[in-house]
Amino acid sequence: MNGISALFLPKSVAVIGASKSPQKIGYRILNNLIRWKFEGKIYPVNPKYNEILGLKCYPSILEIPDDVDLAVVTIPAEATPHIIEELGKKGVKAAVMIPSGFSEIGRRDLEQKIVDIAKKYGVRILGPNVFGIMYIPEKLNATFAAETLDPHPGNIALITQSGALGVALIGWTKMENLGLSAMVSIGNKADIDDADLISFLGNDPNTEVILIYMEDIRDPRRFLKIARRVTLKKPIIVIKAGRTKRGIRAAASHTGALAAPYYLYEALFKQAGILYSNSITEAFYWARMLSAPYHYYGDNTLIITNGGGAGVIATDTIEEKGLKLMELPDDLKRKFKEILPPYVQVGNPIDLAAYADRDSYYEALTLAIRDKRVHAIIVINVHTVHAIPHEVADGIIEAVEEENIYGKPIIYCGIGGEKAVEVIRYVNERGIPAYWGPEAAVSALYAFITYHNNKRKIIEKGIVI
Amino acid sequence: MNGISALFLPKSVAVIGASKSPQKIGYRILNNLIRWKFEGKIYPVNPKYNEILGLKCYPSILEIPDDVDLAVVTIPAEATPHIIEELGKKGVKAAVMIPSGFSEIGRRDLEQKIVDIAKKYGVRILGPNVFGIMYIPEKLNATFAAETLDPHPGNIALITQSGALGVALIGWTKMENLGLSAMVSIGNKADIDDADLISFLGNDPNTEVILIYMEDIRDPRRFLKIARRVTLKKPIIVIKAGRTKRGIRAAASHTGALAAPYYLYEALFKQAGILYSNSITEAFYWARMLSAPYHYYGDNTLIITNGGGAGVIATDTIEEKGLKLMELPDDLKRKFKEILPPYVQVGNPIDLAAYADRDSYYEALTLAIRDKRVHAIIVINVHTVHAIPHEVADGIIEAVEEENIYGKPIIYCGIGGEKAVEVIRYVNERGIPAYWGPEAAVSALYAFITYHNNKRKIIEKGIVI
After folding, report:
1. What is the pLDDT of residues A381-391, one digit of tens each?
2. Is the ipTM of this complex over 0.85?
3. What's the Rg (C-alpha) of chain A?
4. Which of B352, B411, B420 is nearest to B379 (CA)?
5. CB–CB of A383 and B168 under 8 A?
């Protein structure tokens, strides 16, 4: 087991600085490990106690009778060099360094010191200045997050260079019903960096999408090499902050991020086939879409709508993003006309119009899924006076569950008030990526098609662009 | 009273084709007028009934003993020419033409016919192919919207060329707690067009922002002339659909919209100082911001945050949108340092950091509001382990209510899950524009500053750009 595997798949975890006081980080991490029913061994370490939360507490890691794969360090920055020395002697493979007070406040010396000691012993370090790590498939919660932030299980791995933002984003994924496989707070990146993490997550069968909040990359060459390899297996989405002069300055005083102009990052992202966005919301639209079990068959997109205006907006957005609204072949047009009421405008968008109901959606979608020339479908459900969003959604779900055996990308788009939002949630829960508004739905399709095109370019030419 | 005033401020309304059957549009419109307690006179017209919903029903509009300002016509398209003739004879000033079946399905002849008759008598026509009109200050609901779509009262006027989208957007405004003054479904625009409506709404003391979903403009010169004049009084926001070749095609079969390349519209919007967006969501961010009682003092923006990462993203977005993050003068820096805990990074963003609480937000914001060199403030509240969004929000609200007597623009930005969203709603209800995420908050500021710059340019040069 190497250091990175030890981070995600430890058989035993020690909490250095474990505490009995519920306000303390050393208590909260220990409590999270126990609360999640981590199946490996858990060792609290603190000379002040004999027992915490029912577990035997050790005065020093060196006193633990068994091997320790992972140590979570929750003591003040000043005391960490000594502790890392002990972890090294104990043969610990990786350490999650919670404390702040290192390079982010200018103490590069102290940070270098712990890295040097860790290197000597072959201990890998996450952080310092981190919030911890969650790896849901192993029931590992080595963070000090509150219970209310237990994420939904899923296949999106989140890497964040900002602890606070990471915490907030977990809350967001819960509300949006997005499932996570992992959440890694990467902090000052004194040792373990994004490349290490995506290298592991690229091979992780529990992860389908990797989403990174990033302020800098320290070793761009290595990151590029690994990211390109990972892209062939699963998409990487990056929100890069520090894109402008003032932004870079702000990032430097936040995580000690190194200054490099954004165009270099953009070039790197492009070459690695990484999807990058300036918007948190958009990045999560993409993550939702790319975590769905869909396959790429081509670019021919069909829109089915009950609202003409919404259809026009979707059409414009598709064209503006360089996606492809298919021209309906005559025979397919005829087939649609046969099954749909006479007032329906059969074009692309197919406008089921004001009286659209469950059946017309079901029929139109079934036909579209069955036709191999249709490669992707956006189904728009405008909450009008006539359309009852819930019934319409059931028609859509039924068609998808019956017919979509080959995983053709299908995106649901709702527009309206509270009812519409409830239905979007409901459709998402049934495994169909669902969004409010045509802009979001088209953005999701854009990410899907761009990812698969990037992958193809890497296979064909070894590089994107 | 001219025709356009009659549309918004009628003293009497007739419903042509009023019905006793609750499914029918002729019932729903009558019921909405009564349900909203419209204070003028209401006359159902239908030869089949003597009475509907407790009101005397007339066999023809010509039998009504009093003057009728506005008629809402809910009979099939074919029968409308005869009815318009009668409205003319009766001296009705404006007619809301609900039925479809005109130019949007190619029947330009029939549409021209009713327009010609109406012109002869000086009757103004809204539509045909519309959903109706709501003007909240007059308790006028001449639409067939369901009761669940009664909008919150407010100062945003919504004009929509798509009925279905209009209905859905009312639902959205309710959910988002955005208040409306008016909702006008403008449909095929055979007679009354956007220029007529913004001309009225520009002078309407109950309207602060005009938001238009638009597929085309028939008389661009007139629109430009009037829009520029209105911009001097209040902002106009446009979502223009039909921006691409395929989008124009879709719009043509939707509302019979005329084809014109989008760059012409863009040029027109720019010259009139109109804010235009490709995104429904963004347009509503703007409407919320511009409906707040804020005044423009200059471009110097300050960010206060408890999350470094969120601060970096906000900084980048401000710079990318061409807004101005102020450099803090030394004396102001010193003042911030005096009142804030020692670990706070006093720059711009001011990063209150992990332990930020109600008091640090209150103190920082109070100082920022009081200093005249700070012209606009974005306050970011990341839902971390430490920050309790509700308490922080109360500190912010208190500072604003105590200090912001001159209406300096202040924008709240929350990031997190359900709790954060609840707090965003709460802050909005207290009159401070509040958004999820820095991108949305900065977009709102962008709209505010752009609008005021546009206004200045029109005053100085008679034209924007």
Report:
1. 998 877 778 89
2. yes
3. 25
4. B411
5. yes
